[in-house]
Amino acid sequence: MLSSGFTNAPVSQFLVFSTVIGALLATITDTRYYLHIQVVPHVWNYGQFWRFATWQTCFTNSTEVLFAVLTFYQLRVIERLWGSRKFASFLLATLPYTTLLPPLLLTFVLRPLTFGRINYLPAGPTSILFALLANYYAAIPYTYRYKISPWAQSSSQSNTQAISTLWSRSLTLTSKSLSYLPPLQLALSQFPGSLLAAAVGWVVGTAYRRDLLPGAARWRVPGWMVGEEKQKGFEGLRARLDAEREREGGASGLATGILAGETGKGGVWQGGGRWGNGR
């Protein structure tokens, strides 16, 4: 059964609440203008290279906050799949890449190639979000598929031909398709800078999954940081198995009792087309 809310997902809960609180504090303190990056004048004219490290602090408008919260809440299934320790380790291990690569690419590659037309990188953890989304795309399977067809059925066709025609021309979607709409809106909200951050995050998340980032996939944060006890080897495995048995013990014990009662009443099959009492 799927767990609701933030059950077994404390790091995702922190991401959701920090996204809302960070944007609220930036609005109250009127510091939103210190978060985004404009290569000219912020970097080349004023030398504000510290913006390379702070632009992912929070989003600066309510629409982006809404779509980011919806996406982080949807991605909590990754934390349940990996465990809170690996989930937190992923965020910290990829943070240098998701933080530094977008502004560096914007400053030294995209702006010179476009003759200064692409000059703006919006604030917000878009790269972190899309790094998680890449792993959600690869690790979480869909449960069903469905097709949407905008073409009407022709009266001159038979039912079989019409069905085959509609099926070949229809758009195939899955149970996960709607989950990509909020992050897609987030990637296009302040085009092209937001799309750059989203693309870099997707590449970093894919590289992490394929173990292309040096040492990132094997590094883990201490267990106490996510509320886990320090357990290693067979001791940790045994603790997890014991926890699973405790959760399933009630249901399995009830099923065993029912089967035992049925066997005692009806006896056992002895062959020859008759039932015996098993004695």
TrEMBL record:
Any one GO molecular function term: serine-type endopeptidase activity
Lineage: Eukaryota, Fungi, Dikarya, Ascomycota, Pezizomycotina
One of the record's GO cellular component terms: membrane
Transmembrane helix found in the keyword field: yes
Entry's transmembrane regions: 12-29, 49-75, 87-108, 120-139
The keyword Transmembrane helix belongs to this UniProt entry's keyword annotation: yes
UniProt-recorded name of the protein: Uncharacterized protein
Record InterPro entries: Rhomboid-like_sf
Keywords: Membrane, Transmembrane, Transmembrane helix
Topology in the lipid bilayer: Multi-pass membrane protein
